[in-house]
Amino acid sequence: MALTARIRTRDGWAVSHAVVTVADMTGTQVLRAEADAEGVVRDDTALAPGAYTVIVTAVGYAPVASSALVTASGRAEVGAVTLARQGGSELPPPGPWTIDPVHSSVGAVAQHLGISSVRGRFTEFGGSIEIAPDDITKSRVEAVIRAESIDTGNGMRDTHLRSADFLDVAKYPELTYRSAGLTQAGPDRWTVHGELSMRGIARPVDLDLAYLGTGADPWGGTRAAFRATAELHRDDFAMNYNQVLQAGIAAIGTTLRIELEIQAVQGDVLPSL
């Protein structure tokens, strides 16, 4: 093959609709090839030895340009190319957006026995996002999570987490998060400043947010994607239960890492799928 390349997202997913364009030093296009279902580009068009510019594009992603040197063999091995979703400091169009829980996830990770991690998720939640039209730092997000929907894949552990030792779902059935604005933390990062209420206790919690981009969905709507993380201290919310093992190691870590993968639909209602 004269041209080979592998197109991936930052998460390692194949970009099956990517296009690779090769131009010579005069700017003339000499080759154009599309990726297959695995994000791999293969083309057997022989190229004359010399320097070329390789441009990789895909709808919804920022283009990537690089240089390639074709040897006497006529081959150009571009290798792995990583594409980033268009987004960054742009953020979605202003107005209301509704979180789609079917295509979103709210997860938490806790350290276990000091050597590994236990993962859980909440299966019932909803919320809304309001992108401010004039001053984007005044954008808001609100979310409500059903505490009883915690799922770690172990029924006994989940029952304990729902008890008064942890979430106390009988007394506090919901967790709520409300933001008070956001600030830009980098070229593609934002910090969402908000307040989390859990077990009847409200504490400030900032989210480290990445906007992954916006695109059309199969149901005629527009969707925006976000990824966010935060770190919580259990004792901030009076969840002090723990077991100390003989070696002096706590069975459960004192901090929780919150991991959010969010899809939001433009508008104030979700589509009927």
TrEMBL record:
InterPro entries: Lipid/polyisoprenoid-bd_YceI, TTHA0802/YceI-like_sf. This is Lipid/polyisoprenoid-binding YceI-like domain-containing protein. It comes from Streptomyces griseoluteus. Pfam families: YceI (PF04264). Residues 96-265 form the Lipid/polyisoprenoid-binding YceI-like domain. Belongs to the UPF0312 family.
